[in-house]
Structure formats: structure tokens, C-alpha cells
Amino acid sequence: MTERTIHALGEAYRRGDTTPTAVTEAYLARIEKFDGHVGAYLTVTREPALRAAAAADARHRARAPLGPLDGVPIALKDVLCTKGIRTTCGSKILESFVPPYDATVVARLAAAGAVVLGKTNMDEFAMGSSTEHSAFKPTRNPWDLARVPGGSSGGSAVAVAAHLAAGAFGTDTGGSIRQPAAFCGTVGLKPTYGRVSRYGLVAFASSLDQIGPFAKNVRDAALLLQAIAGHDPHDATSVAAPVPDYAAALDGRVHGLRAGIPREYFAEGVDPEIARAVRAAIETLRGLGVATEEVSLPTTGYALAAYYLIAPAEASSNLARYDGVKYGLRVPGGKDLIEMSSRTRAAGFGAEVKRRVMLGTYALSAGYSEAYYGRAQKVRTLVRRDFETAFARVDLLLAPTTPNVAFKHGEKEDPLAMYLNDALTIPVNLAGLPGLSVRCGFTAAGLPIGLQLIGKPFDEATLLRVADAYERATTWLAREPALP
Amino acid sequence: MSTLTKTGWDVVIGLEVHAQLLTRSKMFCGCPTAFGARPNSQTCPVCQGMPGVLPVVNRRAIEFGIKTALAFTCRINPACRFARKHYYYPDMPKNFQISQYEEPLAEDGALEIDVDGASRAIGIQRLHLEEDVGKLLHEGTLETAQASLVDYNRSGVPLMETVSRPDLRSPEEAAAYLRAFRAVLVYLGVCDGNMEEGSLRCDANVSLRPRGATELGTKVEIKNMNSFRNVKLALEFEVKRQRQALAAGERIVQETRLWDADRGYTRAMRSKEYAHDYRYFPEPDLVPLEIERAWVDAIRAALPELPRQRRERFVRQYGLPPYDAGVLTQSRALAEYYEAAVREFRQPKIVSNWIMSELLRELPGDDERAIERAPVPPANLAGLLRLIEDGTISGKIAKDVFQKMVGSGEDARTIVAREGLTQVADEGALAAVIDQVLAQNPKAVEDYKGGKTAAKGALVGQVMKATRGKANPAIVNRLLEEKLSKI
Predict the structure, then answer these.
(1) Mean pLDDT (whole number) for B275-279
(2) Closest chain A C-alpha to B150 CA, distance in angstroms
(3) How far apart are CA B340 and CA B342, in angstroms?
(4) Is the Cα torsion angle A464, A79, A265, A412 positive or negative in sign?
(5) Residue-range domain boundaries for chain B
């Protein structure tokens, strides 16, 4: 039952084959059984989930469901504020934080009838690419428990890959949806910056963060995005552009589309197995009538450095509020307020968070701000222009999602080695574009490989259309991870 | 040094004024802004700086900013942007303040002030918007407190910061600037101008330089001056302090000093009390604000009459001396009081005299609320003046009646009727009193006849005394002269 797609669940509910409560119970049972192995969840919200499911049962019985997500069990990254349910961001400093309000996305999902199974594990404050930097526990990749699921939304990726949720939501600041989606073989979609409200998303880097879905297939991703997309008066950076019908875009009509293949995304450092799988996927799409041409994004190599100034700079500001005064952890005993805050932050933040706060503080400090933060912003403009130039010629870009597949726990202890993992996803965030990762094969060792589709601003529909056509033309989804 | 002692020092002062805007809701959320509510009762996740919240700009606050900038003849920038200003202090929930830095709402304006009868334009460098912080309540002093409480009601209230150029040359000029500034804000209805409640706050940059020099000296920032009086006192103290230091050959240290109103001096803040590096960067949660030309034009077209214009009109329309016009237009409420009274009693100068000598003795002319709620409303003042005009009461009695009106809130006629204060204008009755007074004061009569005309005044006084002030002075004077001439 837990292997069904959201689309299939909707059909089953309509036919009366099963009920939201039955499916929710099946998921809760599976979480009970397997989550100890993979560690996808930080909090399982059993009782509220069953209550929500019962309400969905009634609506389905009355043949008046709220929509395709009514009664669908989902998981939320623990960075999305949930009223009355603790929201930790994977950090000790927010271990006891219970938000008094729902994120806009959470409210929209509730309004769509979705059943929240719980909150998923993540790298602390979404800083990381392996979900090893959670203050509470690491999450494991269901395809190989010795390996990481990617990050920072590792818990959500695993929840979907291991069928511990029908769909899940994560956040992507530099690849935190697409990279774990690639490592776990799910579909992961980072929408255009401004497509989805960030209100209630605990900020890491405000100009880069975006919420998006993990799904078992592309169709489900379209349904999940549909529920959360659109302008929100609470988020001044959310955009009022009309939201198309994403499911309607999945018509298989890709003939005549032009796809660019960015040369720089196949450069040295990309695992040959990945390059091969992605090139094969491109061939498949050509077979479906997609025209391809090589394009160049010459500033790709500078994006990582710019990102590691901009994102930490914004993070150092966003995380300043965790001072022990208002909520979360407080370490008492200081001789004054400033010392109380210092002690609280010293005890409450993990090493990676401290590293980035220091990086960001430095990048913004007087005398250095122009040289670091200022220049990084200029690079960001250049990166954006690269994409604009490419998109003057093509409708979308096709590339690997990651330079390597899932690595082993503890393998990348050097922060720089970890940062390099996001080299192919970060430029998309800097440019604010939509990006989608879809499974496009496996390594000889049986680890999933992700194909990244990058689109024009607010053109998620084209990414979904092409990814859906690809998925239907291939059989990669047939393979499932084997849990103990 | 010798030339300096000879030539002395020029004082250079610039003011940074923070004004709380009279919007109903806060700068970046929908919480109310009313003063004095129960602690933390006017807060929400946004102004408490909860994880995940985002700011949304209050359009009304921007409108108020534009309005003020136009009144100061500033250039409204077609695009402006908010920035984050960072420092750690628990009254600021996010530990950064959303303010404006490189791209303020408006720049390059001026405010005319009058000092010693001369008028001078003081440059305004910039005007920008930001959010206010909350308030910390300590048990005891900051140094000894075992616990502190935070009230976030004020957190997020819209603040408008206006920075003057260093054009002010004395504490008096600074005070004049602040008064003129405040009057403009109050006329515009964007701020209540109450310094004691903190809706208007002023910091000053003070430096001295050798007389005639063009280069600025080292500046010291003065904070915590919470009344007009304190601004003047603090600046006078600081100027004196710097002058003495320079005279002693010391160097002025660039620092922030707090005015201690109780002790009457400024003291240097501990460096821990203020940040050295605010690490400004553009607020990523807000998009740059584009200010449409049409909006600015509409706001400009709807600007009310400003203090200076009103003062000039009072001189023109009512024939008032400029001094009177200046006093009467210092606050919008007072000017409105005056005009309402003049509408009911059309002798502008008399109304002005009564307001300046009597009303303003009771109420501070720059306290809008006090004037609005004056116990003697304009119609009642006009009523009192009519009683003088028609001879019902004398001017002297009228002053007593005014005092009673202040005390009871009643109108003049009621008081006069109840207390039997109606002026005696009956010539027969007055003649009898005068005869009596003349009989009882032969010495004064003799003096008068001997050429001491001043003696007549004493006799008038006696008549007034005998009638308990109710005699009509004009009739008394005439009758007295007639009788004296016959003696």
C-alpha cells in the first residue's frame, strides 16, 4: 500500500478500495518498522495524522475530497514551522521550539487535506550535503545504509525513497532537494525563487532558500508543487505570476523542445559513471524528439565560491536571533545578557553552523564586505546572465545533478570536499531558477544517479513535462531499495 | 594654541531625529502600535522575531515618509531598499534591525529655522524608514539586575530617521531645529511629537573646530536626550566639555556619550554598549521598493499647510505681528485653536493676546493633546471676549473669569451670571460711589489739582475696589474727570 503513488492513492480513495486512515496506519506501521534503520524522522506525529486521516475519510465517503492530496500521508522537513509541533531544524538550539504558527506551505497542505506523518531529519539549519550534521542523528541511504542520503533534506528524501511517506517536502538553498533526490533516486524539485512562499520556513539563506517536493514519480511531484505554489501576502519575495496546471503539462509532448547541454557540467570531477548515465538519458530524450545542443555557462566555476560567501553571510544574520532570550535553548549562568547569549550559542550550534556563521560574519564585516560579499554578488549577476544567454537559445538545460553518487558516512570530513558536492546545483540557486532531479540510472554498485533539468524562471511545467516523458520512456523506477 | 585662544571655536552640530510614525499597524506586520498596552500584548511571530517569519512593508509608513520628505523638500529616490543592521541586544528580537542604508527613501532637503529673528535653512541629508526595538525592563540597574524582562510591544513600530547636515552652530539652533522639525511632523499628522513618551527621539553629533575652519573636528555622538530642555542642556554641557578639553590641549575622542539628565552631564558609553560594525547588507526578504512618480505627486498635492506657511498667512490674513504668528503656529492644535476662536470673535490681535498671555500660561503651546483638550475651548474664549467687548465685564474681571473657566470648564456667561460679576455701567450708581471716594480721599484730590495727574489712577483704583472690580473703567474715568474738573 505504501508503494502507491499519490496519483494511485487518489484513484483508490475514489473507488473506495482503501481509506486515508488505512493508508496512514500502513505508513505509521512502516515507519515503526524501518525508520530505526534509516532515521528519516525526527518527530512522528501519529495522533494528529490519524485525526487528519479520519477527517479525510469522511470527505472521501461524502465524495467531496479537497483535491488530489486529500488523505495523502506526507512528511515535512523539520525546517518548516508547524503550529503546536516542535520544529528543531536539526539543531540543539531549537530542540524544544514549538512554533505558534504554521508555515504558509503547511497551511496550504492542510487546506488540501494532506496528512502530515511527521518532521524529517536534516543537516542542522539546512547546512550540509549529507544529513550527517543533524544534532540528533544521521540519516541513512536506503540503497546502502553505510552511505549518506545526501542533504540537507536527507530525511525527506529517504522518507519518500523508503516508502515512509507518499511524498515529502524539503528546502533547497544550494541543492538540498535535488542532491538528496539524486542520491536516493527520488524526484526532487526546487521551484523558481518566488514560486513558493517562504513564510514559516526557518531561514538559512533568504535569497536562495526555496521549498519543494520529493516524490515517487514526476506526476506526484506535479501534484505536490500544485498545492504549495503561488503568491503569499506574507512573503514579499513570492511572485504573483499565475500558477499553471502542472498535471495538465504532463502530456508527453516534448517533440520540438530544445535542450541545452552545459559543457561545464561534464567537466573533470564528474564521476564517469554519472556522465555516462546522463548522456544516455539525453539520448533517450533526443529519441523522444527533444533537440539538443551544447551550451556554455562560463562562470560555473565561480559559483561555488560566490555561494559560500552569500549563503553564510545571510545565515550569519538569520541565525543571530538564536540568543536564548525568546525561545529554544538558554544556557544560564552568564554574568550578563551578552554572556548568556554567547553561552547559549556556543552550546546550541554545531560545528558546521558555527563555521558558516563565522564565514558569513567575516564576509560582511567592515573593510571586507565589498571584497567578499560585494564581489560575490557581482559573480551572482554573471552566473544569472550565463543562464539568460543560454535560455535565449534553449527551453531547458540537461545535466548531472551531482558530480558523484552517495558517499559513505564520515567519508567527507573535509568541509571543502563536502561543499564541492553541490557544484552542479548551486548555480541554479544563485540564478533563482527551477531545477528538477529525476532518476536516470544506477552505478555498477547499485546507487541511483540523478539527471538534472534546469528551466527558465517560472517554467516548472516544462521541467515536469520533460522529466515525466523521460520517466515513462524508461524503466528505472522499477527498482526498489531493499530494507533489512 | 595662542591663535586659537584668540579666535575661539565654532560649534558644529548635526541632529539625527527618530520619529515614531502614527500608523495603526507596525512597520512589517499587522500588530497595533498603541502606546502603553500590557507588555507583549501587541506582538505576533513577526515582531517577536520567531524563526521563519518574514517582513511585509507597511505602505502607509512609506506614504508618511514620502509626505515628510516632501515637506522637507527632499528628493524622493525612485527606488529604495531596506537593509539589515546588526548588533546584539535583547530588546531587538532578530538581533538585527531592518533599516535603510545605502538606498534611503529620500535625500537632500532642508528645514528653515528662526533664531534671533533671522531665518536659516538647515540641510537635511537623508530620511529613511526602519523598525523600532522593544524595551528591556531591569530589576534595579543594568549593572546589578538579576533578571531582565523584555516587552516587544514597541518592536516593529515604524520609525523615521532624519539626519540633518552639520549645519547647526549652537545648542539654541539645535533646539530651534528640533522644534521646527517637530512642528512639521505634527502638522503632517505623521508623528505625535511626544518626546517624553519617546515618539520623538534625538541624537546629536557635536564637534568643535577653530573659528573659520572648514574641516570638521572630531565628533562625539550624544544620546538619551528625552526632552527639548534636555537637548539644549546636554548640548550646552557637551560644547563646554569639548571647549575645555581643547583649551587644555587634549584631543577629543570619537565616542558615544549618554546624557544623564539627573546629574546634568554626558558620560562615555562602555564600548560593549554599542556595536562597532553593523555589517549592513540589503534585506533579502524584501524586494527593492519602487516609488511611483504618480504616488509622490498625489501625496504632494494633498500636503497640508505647513507651520511656516501658516505663520506667514497669520501675518497676512490677521495682521498679526510675526512674533504672535510664530507662537500661535508652533503646534497645529494651537493654530487651529486660534483660528476657531477668531472665527467666533473677529478681533485677531485681541484673541492672540489672550491666548499668548492667558491660555499658554495654563498649557504648553507645543503639547497638541493638551491644547486639543483645553478646558477653555475656542468658543468659550470667544464668548469671554464678547463679554468684555459689550461692556458686561471689565478686562480685569475677565482674567479672573478665565481662571474660573479653566478650573470648571464652564462658559464665561454662566460664571459671570452666577457670581454677579456683571460690570456696573449705571452712571447714577457709579456717580454715588465716586462722590464717596472723592470725599474719603481729599489728599489725592488735592494732589490732582496740584498737577499730579497720576493721582487720578489711585482714585480710579479706589472706585474699582469699592465696586469689587465690576465698575466699567471707561465710565469711571469719564465721570471722575467731570467731577474733578468741577471741584
Answers:
(1) 83
(2) 9
(3) 5
(4) negative
(5) 3-298, 305-419, 427-486
Contact A326 B49 (CB under 8 A): yes
CB spacing of B54 vs A321 below 8 angstroms: no
pLDDT at B487: 78
Of residues B113 and B270, more confidently modeled: B113
Q: Helix, strand, or coil here: A174?
A: coil
Here the cell at position B476 is: 469711571
Higher-confidence residue: B195 or A134?
A: A134
Active site residues of A: 77, 152, 176
* Interface membership of A337 toward B (CB under 8 Å): yes
B272 and A CB contact within 8 Å: yes
**Contact A364/B at CB under 8 A:** yes
pLDDT of amino acid A290? 98
Q: Where are the domains of chain A?
A: 6-260+393-478
Chain B residues lying within 8 Å of A321, measured CB to CB: 49, 51, 93-95
- According to the CATH classification, is domain A6-260+393-478 in 3.90.1300.10? yes
Mutation target vs A (from B28, B95, B133; most A CBs, 10 A cutoff): B95
Are the beta carbons of A306 and A383 closer than 8 angstroms? yes
What is the number of other CB atoms lying within 10 angstroms of the CB of residue A272? 8
Residues 6+ apart with CB under 8 A from B283: B55, B81, B82, B83, B84, B98
pLDDT tens digits along B331-373: 899 999 999 999 999 999 999 999 999 999 988 877 888 899 9
Q: Which residue has the cell 556563521?
A: A357
Chain A hits for B49, CB-CB cut-off 8 Å, are 321, 326
pLDDT band with cut points at 50, 70 and 90 for residue B272: low
Is the model's pLDDT at A19 over the cut of 90?
yes
Lowest mean pLDDT among A419-423, B33-37, B190-194, B465-469: B465-469
Q: Is the pLDDT of residue A55 over 70?
A: yes
Q: Flag the least confident range among A427-436, B231-240, B421-430.
A: B421-430
Distance from CA of A114 to the nearest CA of B (A): 21
Q: Which of residues 80-139 of A touch B (CB under 8 A)?
A: 80-81, 87, 89, 94, 97, 99-101, 103
Contact A321 B51 (CB under 8 A): yes
Mutation site, B281, B286, B287, interface A, largest A CB count within 10 A: B281
Long-range CB pairs of B346-352 (<8 Å, 24+ gap) are: B347/B385, B347/B389, B348/B318, B348/B319, B348/B320, B349/B318, B349/B319, B349/B320, B349/B324, B350/B385, B351/B381, B351/B382, B351/B385, B352/B318, B352/B320, B352/B324, B352/B328
Task: Reply yes or no on whether the pLDDT at B271 is more than 90.
Answer: no
Does the distance separating the beta carbons of B287 and A320 come in below 8 Å?
A: no
The x, y and z cell numbers of residue B223, run together, are 544620546
Q: Does domain B427-486 have CATH number 1.10.10.410?
A: yes
Q: Are B409 and B461 in contact (CB under 8 A)?
A: no
pLDDT of residue B212: 87
Alpha carbon distances (Å) from A175 to A180, A330, A419: 8, 32, 11
| Inter-chain residue contact B54 with A199, CB threshold 8 Å | yes
| CA gap B68, B129 in Å, rounded | 11
Burial of B135 (C-beta count, 10 Å sphere; 0-12/13-18/19+): middle
For A334, name the nearest residue in chain B, comparing CA atoms only.
Answer: B146
| A337 closest CB neighbour out of B50, B148, B276 | B148
- pTM: predicted TM-score of the whole model, two decimal places: 0.90
A122, pLDDT greater than 80: yes
Closest chain A residue to the Cα of B93, Cα to Cα:
A321
Beta carbons of A361 and B45 less than 8 Å apart: no
For B191, what's the count of Cα atoms within 13 Å in the CB-facing half-sphere?
Answer: 28
pLDDT digits (tens, 9 = 90+) for B131-156: 999 998 877 766 667 778 899 999 99
